[in-house]
Amino acid sequence: MNLQGLIVCRNLLDEDIFTGAADKFDTAAKLIERAERLGLSGNLFRAYLIYLLAHEPNLISTTIESSGGVIGESLREVFKHDVEILLPILRGELWSDLKILDIYKPTAASNDDALSELLRRLDKLTTAEEIADAFIEHWRRFGYGDIATYRAFRWDKNIIGIRHFETIRLDDLIGYAHQKDLLTGNTTAFVDGKPANNVLLVGARGTGKSSGVKALVNEYYSQGLRLVQITKPQLKFLPEIMETLRRFMSKRFIVFLDDLSFEESEGEYKHLKSAIEGGVESRPENVLIYATSNRRHLIRETWRDRDEGHEELYRDDSLNETISLSDRFGLIIHYYAPTQAEYLEIIRSMLRRRGIELDAETLRLEGLRWEMSHSGRNGRTAQQFVNYYLGQR
Fold first, then answer.
1. What is the pLDDT of residues 293-310, one digit of tens each?
2. 26: which of 22, 68, 220, 232 fits an S-S bond (Cβ 3.0–4.6 Å)?
3. Which of 212, 226, 221, 202 lies closest to 172, judged by CA?
4. Residue 313 has what pLDDT?
5. What's domain 160-335's architecture?
């Protein structure tokens, strides 16, 4: 095919698979390698082209991200022009002498949900206008590149996709209905573009605070929510992180800090205070900060801090500094250790999902015996008991 007429998709000219620069066996080798690596199936020319258009940045996809989903009519027409040129491949009309390339089945199918949805949608479309609009809608919903592929990221001079992110859903979390309602209500407002608060989840260990935040990303992924987890030493990079996320305005990001607390001598908390509220540069409207902690005020306090004999001249100023960080979280959700009845109900529900029903007395004896030999009543202890019980069957 002659692709010289492409305008916004000219990066495809670097792909000798489509330009005919390679012989058929070299082309076959490259397509099969990509099919195995990416989990592509069917007509590999079509599947690989769709993958490239969905993932590689171009003027359309980057404009959609930077503008929050808006694209000019003229730019849309230019993209439609490119799709007209690519139409034979996108319709699956480009065939190979090697028939295996037309009906390929990879060893492992793709786990890229966004790409799979796009491929299914394109199966039903035939015109250049329909196909162009399908790609534009895909970029609005999922973005391009790693932003489309991954639900969660870590920071290492840039956002790096987490390939094996937990698949936990909110329905998997037993109990704490009120806390889940608060969490989902705030997050729903956020992904809908409405005012929402930074969130601090605080309370007893093992109660599902971190799992609740991770589950949110799986629930709202198709609505544009992503998670970026950072560590306490990385707080000094928050301005850089915020500026990076500002480039993806059609997406919503939770910057996640897990098990957060500070000693009074640690100064990193000031970076966090500034990022939440008070810095010269405003926090991007597509970013919220969610943190979990076992400590209500995040910064360690001692009785000495409250002692009127403390040597600091303005003792109240010191106390205000200590509690001011947690006060900057607009929504604080408290998690309490479950009662004995709630703890046993968590175990019962987990076992029922595995098709196991214990009688009440056996459940009580076994569950409480496990609790006494471990770290007390909480969701983590309940899950550990269930794992043990299932492993012994």
1. 876 555 555 445 545 555
2. 22
3. 212
4. 46
5. 3-Layer(aba) Sandwich (3.40)
